[in-house]
Amino acid sequence: MAVYALTGFSLVSLLSFGYLSWDWMKPSLVADVAMDPMEKSLPPAFTRPPHIIFILTDDQGYHDVGYHGSDIQTPTLDRLAAEGVKLENYYIQPICTPSRSQLITGRYQIHTGLQHSIIRPRQPNCLPLDQVTLPQKLQEAGYSTHMVGKWHLGFYKKECLPTRRGFDTFLGSLTGNVDYYTYDNCDGPGVCGYDLHEGEDVAWDQSGKYSTFLYAQRVSKILASHSPKEPIFIYVAFQAVHTPLQSPKEYIYRYRSMGNVARRKYAAMVTCMDEAVKNITWALKKYGYYDNSVIVFSTDNGGQTFSGGSNWPLRGRKGTYWEGGVRGIGFVHSPLIKRKRRTSWALVHITDWYPTLVSLARGNLSNVPGLDGYNVWPAISEGKESPRTEILHNIDPLYNHAKYGSLEDGFGIWNTAVQASIRVGEWKLLTGDPGYSDWIPPQTLTNFPGSWWNLERLTDGLRKSVWLFNITADPYERYDLSDQRPDVVRTLLMRLVHYNQTAIPVRYPAENPRAHPDFNGGAWGPWASEDDAEEWEGGGKPLKSRNKKKKCKICKLRSFFRKLNTRLMSNRI
C-alpha cells in the first residue's frame, strides 16, 4: 500500500470534512424520495419524440454544485437533479475538445484522431468531416437543431462550422475561451481577435453583453419562435465557468465573505449560470415544451483548482486522468422519466448521449456503426442495469512519456510510459503520467494557495508509471493496488492493447500564421480555402507560407490597439 505524507492536515481534520468514510459511495446516503403516484400512470412510450435540451458547463468542478455539499449556491441545479435522476457514476473527459467531440460523435477520441490535447485556434484541424454528428442524426429524425455557446471543435474552414455539422442555427464562440463581455480571445501575445458568431457571420453587435445571460436569452428566443408540436434539440454549451473569472458584481457580492478572491469570483459565475438554467427551464414551461422534454445536464471536465474550482474529495483536477479530472456532474430531468427522484450508480460516459438521444428521438442508428456509446435510457429512466461495463478514458501517444515507464513494466505487451487510462468494472488502471495528483480541498481561505493546502501527496509516486484502483471501494484513489494485483493490471493492459489496435493516427497539425485574426477583419474565423484544405489534408503538413498574406498598415495599427486593450483588460480582471 502506498505511503502517504500528511502536510498540514491531521486525520481528525480530514474526518471533520466528512469525506474519508467509504459510506460516501453508498446509495443509501442519497435515499430515493417516494415516487409520486401520478408517475405510475405515465404511458410506457412517448406519444411523440421529446424535446431535448442538453446543457454543458465548462470547467465546473465535481464539488461545485449544492447537492455535492458545496458552499456555492445552485438552487436550480439542485432542484432539477432532485426531481430527476442524479448520475453519480458519470464520466467525461479531462479537457474541453475531447469531451465535446465524444458528445457530438458518440466515439472515443482515439477513433476521431483527437486523442491529444485540444484543437487550438491556429491549427488547421477540426472534428473529422466524415463523422455523422448527433445534430445531423436528429435532423434526419425531423428535429429542429440549435446550438448556443462554445464550439471548440475547429473552424479553419467553413465546412467545420456548427451550421455545417448539423445545427440549423448557432450563436456562440468558436475558440476555447473568450472574454465574457468583449468576446476577445488572445492565443498568445499580440494574436488577439473577436470571437462571437451568429451563424457563419461575426456578431459584432452583441459585444458588451455577458455571455451567460446572452446565451440563456437566445434559448428563450428560440423556444418562443418555435412550435412545441415540432421536436427541437438545443445544445447549450455555456462558456461558464471557464476563465477569465468574470461575473456581474451583484453575484460576487453574495460571496463577499469568501476570503479567496478566485473562489469568490468563480462561485459568483456558478450561481449566475444556475440562474440562467432557471430561465431556460422557465421558458420551456412558458412556451409549452416542458411536459414533453428531456433536460440533460453535464460538465465537460474537472474543475481547475488554480482558478477557483474544486473537485473535492476526488483526486486531481482538470487535465488529469484522476477521478477529479474525469468524473463529472451529471443528471437528467424530465417528466417522461419513469423512476424519478433518485440517484443512479449506473456506469455512464459522455459518448452514451449520442445513441441515447437518437434513440429517444426515434432516429436511425443502423447507418452509424462502430459507436463507442450505449443507449443508457433504460438505466436512467427505469433503473435498469447499464449496458456499459468499461470506459476507455484515453490513450495519448503524443503526451510526454513517463520517465520511469517501460515495456518491461507492462508485461511486454504495453509501454507504461504512454499516458493511458481505462476502467473495467470496478477497476481503474492508469499508465504513464496521469497528471497532477493531489487532493485539494475547496479554496476558501484568503492565503490559498499556500504551503498548507497540499492536503496529501504520494511519497512513492515519483518513480511509478502504473496505478491500479478499485474505484467502487476507493473512489478517492488512495490505495494503489498495482503491486498486489498484477493479474488485474495485466488484464486491463490487454484491454488497452485491444483499443490501441483500433486507434486512428493523431490529428494535431502545426499552427499556421494565416489563422491570425488580423487577416480576417479582426475576428477568429475560417481562413483556409478549399485548395488549401485539400493540400493540408492530403500531405498531412501545415499550409505553405507562400499563401500567407502580407500584413497591412491598418492591420498593424489594429494589432497595437488590441495589445493595449488586452493589457487594460488583464488589469481589470
TrEMBL record:
Gene3D superfamilies named in the record: 3.30.1120.10, Alkaline Phosphatase, subunit A
Every Sulfatase N-terminal domain range: 50-361
Iron-sulfur found in the keyword field: no
GO MF term (any one): sulfuric ester hydrolase activity
This protein's UniProt keywords: Calcium, Glycoprotein, Hydrolase, Metal-binding
Required cofactor(s): Ca(2+)
Family annotation (CDD domains): 4-S
Family from the record: Belongs to the sulfatase family.
Record's protein name: ARSI Arylsulfatase
Organism name: Sagittarius serpentarius (Secretary bird)
